[in-house]
Amino acid sequence: MYAKIVCSPPLGQVTVVSSDAESVQFTVLVEANVAPEERYWEVALWHNYDGLDYWQAYSLQEISETSSLLVVNAKDRPNVVRRWFSTTLPRRPKHPSPVSFTIKFRTGTDDGWKWVHDQSGIADGQLYYQRTTVLGNHANDLSYYIRNLGSQLTVSPEAPETPDTLLWSVTAPVKAAAGTTSGYSGHTLGTPVDYTRWFSLVRLWSPWLAPRHGKHQFRADKDAVLAAFLRHDGLHVVILAVSGVDDVLTVLNHDEKGNIRISGRNDSEEGGISRVLVAISKSFDVANAAVMYHARKLVSRYETTTGEQQQELKTLMDKNVKVEWLEDWYDGLTYCTWNGLGQSLTEDKIYDALDSLERNNITITNLIIDDNWQSLAEGENQFRRGWLEFEANKKGFPRGLKQAVADIRNKHESIVHIAVWHAMLGYWGGISPDGAIAKEYKTTHVRKKDGVAGGSMLVVDADDAPRMYDDFYRFLSSVGVDAVKTDAQFFLDELDDAPDRRRFIKTYQDAWTISQLRHFSAKAISCMSQTPQILFHSQLPTNKPRLLVRNSDDFFPEVPASHPWHIFCNAHNSLLTQHLNVLPDWDMFQTAHPWAAFHAAARCVSGGPIYFTDAPGAHDIDLIHQMTAKTPRGNTVILRPHTVGKTTQIYTGYDELNLLKVATYVGMAHSGTSILGVFNTTPSPLTELVRLTDFPGTETGTYVIRAHSTGEVSAPMTRTDKAAFVCVDTKVQGWEILAAHPLRAFELKR
Fold first, then answer.
1. Could you tell me which residues come within 8 angstroms of residue 716 by beta carbon, excluding any fewer than 6 positions away?
2. Which residues belong to the signal peptide in this entry (predicted)?
3. What are the tens digits of pLDDT across the range 506-550?
4. CA atoms of 41 and 61, how far apart (whole Å)
C-alpha cells in the first residue's frame, strides 16, 4: 500500500511560534492509493511538549469539510485518495527549549504504528516559542547573548534603525602591514547562547558567496561574511563582518570549540580595526536589516570624510543619470552570447543569433556581447592572454566594432542597449606588453595568489586606471556601445602583495564606477564581485543608481547537479544582497535546456533581470512568453516583481528534504500581490502544505492563492483560518509559482 504523510507545521523544518500565539494548529494530509472505505486510519502527533525527555502522543481528528482545499497538481495522480486530520497544542510549553515533533500512523487498531521518518527520511519538526520582547534587563549586555567574549574586543551599544532590536558594534585591533606582507589578527567573539541552528554566507572562493547551514556548533567550512543563529527562545542573532574601510578585510570563522572568531587582514602600513556588527531581534529579517543599515552608515561616514571622488559622483548623478532612463536596462529582455555562441565569437555568429530570434518572433531589448570580442595576444589559455587595444579583434570583427554595432542597430530596431564584456583589469591575463594599451598607459607587474589564475601579470597601474577607463568607455560610446559587463572584479583581491591591494582595490573600483556613470549612465553589470571590499565599498552605498550585480556562481548548462544548487544559492545570497544598492542578477540560462522552466521560474521571482543565452534556433517560445509581456509601444519587458526574491527558510540546509520557497512582492503594502516560488531542489518527489503565513505581506485581509502552472485557485482564506494553506505536490525538478491575491468587497448601489 502506498501512503504519504504531509504535516503543517512542516516536519524537517523550524517553525517559530510568535509571542502572541497561545496555541499551534496541526494539520496532516494522508495520501493513499486505496479507497476511503477500505482502510481505517489513525494519525497521532508525537511530541515532547511537556518535557524534553517526556514524549507523548496526541490523536488527530479527521476533518470532514475538505472539498475547498486546493491540491496543486492533484490531476497528475487521479487514483490517490486524500484524507485530512487536525489537532491543536493548546498552550505554550513549560520548558524553554524547542519542542520537537513527528507523526506516526496506522491503518487499523491491530496494526503496528508506522513512523514518517522511517518511511520518508524526513526529520522531526521543531517549534521555537518566542518571548514577548527583545528589550529587557540585558538590553546593553552583549555577554548575556554571546558568551566567552574576547578580552581585546571593544563592544559598544548602537541605536538601531529597526524596531524591537538590540544592536552592538564590536571592534578589534589588526596589526599593520610590513613590506609586502599584510598584518593579520584573530580574536574570539564567542558563542551565541542557547542556539541550535545556524546559517552563514561564506566566501565560496574569492569572487562568490554561498550558503552554509548547521546545527549546534558553528562549523562553517569557509570564511563567512554573515552568520545567523536561532536561539531556543525564537530570537535571532545576526552577525555581520564589515570590510572595505581602512584597507581592512574582516571575516568570521571558528575555533575547535565552536567559538566564532573575528579574523582581520590589514593592507595598510598603520594599525587597523576589524569591525563586526551584532543584532538581535524576534525576526531574522529585522536583525539582518539592522546590521546592514548600520554598516551603510559606517561606510558612508568613512567615505564622507576621506572619499575624494564623492563630489564628482554627485555631479554625475545630478547631470547624467535619470531613473526612467534605466527602465529598459532593468526590465528589458536580454540576450547574451556566452553559452549560446561559444568563445570563438564573431560578428557573423551574432548576426545569425539575432536573425534566429527575429524569425521566432522573440523581441529583445538588450544585447550582451560577451567574452572574446576583444583584441588579445596569443597564449596557452585565457589567463595567459593579454589585452592589446580598445578595438575589437580583426578576425571576428573585420570591419571593426563600430560597423558591427551599427549593423545590429539598423537591422534590429527593438534593441535599445548593447553591452560588451571585459575584465576589471582588462582581460583574464591582464594587459599584453606588445599592445597599444601598454604603450599609452603606465603599467606595472603584479603577482596574484597561487591557483588557476596565479602568477605574474601586467596591468595598467593604479595611477593611470582612471584615465584608461575614461578613454576606453569614451571609445565604446563613440562606436555605439552604451553598456558594459565588467567581469573578474575579484582579481583586485587576488593580488598577493599588500601594497598592490592597497593601491588597486579602491582606485580601480572608483575609476570603473565614475567612468560607467559618466559614459553609460549606470548601465553596467558587475560580475565576480562578491569580494567583501567590493560589496561594502561599491555596492552598499546609495549615492548612485542601483547596479546590476551577479548574485552567484555561473549557470553551467552541462553540469546537471549545478542547477538546483544554483537556485538554492541565489535565494540565500539574496538575504544579504537585498540590502545592497543593487539588483541581484541570477545569471543567464537557456530556454531549450532540460532545466529551462526551473531556471525561468526562479528568474521570474528573483526581482532581478532576465538574460537568456540560447543557441540559434534552440528556443522555447512559450516559456519566453510566460516570462515577458508587450508594452503598448510594442516593447518586450520582463515581469519583474518589486522586491528582491529571497528564501523564507533561513535555517534549512540544502541536504534537508524540504521545498525551497522564494518570496517576493508586487504592489503596495497590504494591497499588492505576494508571490512565492516553490522549488524542489532535492533528489526526491516532495509534497508540502504551503501556508498563507509563508507569503510576506498577508498579515491582514482575505486572500485567494493561484498556482501559475495549472491556473488553479484556492478558496478565500485568512491567516486565522484552520485551513489557510494549499497543498503543493512536486516531482523531482518540480516547481510552482504561487500568488496570494487580496480580496476586496464592494457594495454597489442599485
1. 702, 703, 704, 743
2. none
3. 999 999 999 999 999 999 999 999 999 999 999 999 988 999 999
4. 10
Cα angle: 166, vertex 171, 175; to 5 degrees:
165
- Following DSSP, what letter does each residue of 695-748 receive, concatenated? STT-SSS-EEEEETTT--BPPPB-TTSTT-EEEEEE-TT-EEEEEEEEP-----
Distance in angstroms (rounded) separating the CA atoms of residues 283 and 468: 47
User: Do 239 and 253 meet the contact criterion of CB atoms below 8 Å apart?
Assistant: no
Question: In the 8-state DSSP scheme, what is residue 582?
Answer: E
Tell me the pLDDT band of 305, cut-offs 50, 70 and 90: very low
Between 69 and 727, the more confident residue is 727
- Residue 673 is placed in which grid cell? 500581490
Orientation angle between helical segments 401-411 and 347-359, nearest 10 degrees: 10
Instruction: Judge residue 202's burial from the number of C-beta atoms within 10 Å of its C-beta, 0-12 exposed, 13-18 middle, 19 or more buried.
Output: buried
Flag the least confident range among 56-65, 608-617, 623-632, 699-708.
56-65
Cell representation of residue 132: 514577548
In the predicted model, is pLDDT for residue 505 greater than 60?
A: yes
Q: How confident is the model at residue 306 (pLDDT cuts 50, 70, 90)?
A: very low
CA atoms 613, 616, 622, 628: torsion sign: positive
Q: What is the pLDDT of residue 632?
A: 85
DSSP string for 584-639 = EE---B-TTSTTHHHHHHHHHHHSS--EE-PPTT---HHHHHHHEEE-TTS-EEE-
What's the whole-number average pLDDT of the chain?
93
Whether 340 and 367 have beta carbons less than 8 Å apart is answered as no
Q: 432 with 386: CB under 8 angstroms?
A: yes
Question: Which one-letter amino acid corresponds to residue 323?
Answer: V
- Are 585 and 330 within 8 A, CB to CB? no
Q: In one letter, which amino acid is 520?
A: F
- The pTM assigned to this predicted structure is 0.96
**Higher per-residue pLDDT: 189 or 108:** 189
Strands 582-585 and 547-550: parallel
Burial (CB < 10 A; 0-12, 13-18, 19+), residue 649, is buried
Cβ burial 51-85 (10 Å sphere, 16+ → b, else e) = eeeeeeebebeebeeeeebbbbbeeeeeebebbbb
Cα 179 from Cα 109, distance rounded (Å): 79
The grid coordinates of residue 69 equal: 482545499
Q: Per-residue pLDDT for 316 more than 80?
A: no
| Model pLDDT for residues 342-400, shown as the tens digit of each residue | 889 999 999 999 999 999 999 999 999 999 999 999 999 999 999 999 999 999 999 99
Please give the Cα distance from 554 to 106 (Å, whole number).
47
Separation of alpha carbons 141 and 721, rounded Å: 40
Q: How far is the C-alpha of 314 from the C-alpha of 203, rounded, in Å?
A: 32
- pLDDT tens per residue, range 83-97: 899 999 988 888 888
C-alpha cell at 592: 531549450
What pLDDT, on a 0 to 100 scale, did the predictor assign at position 74?
Answer: 72
- DSSP for 361-384, please give it: T---SEEEE-SS-EEE---SSGGG
Would you say the C-alpha torsion 64, 65, 70, 75 has a positive or negative sign? positive
Q: Where are the alpha helices (DSSP H) in 210-279?
A: none
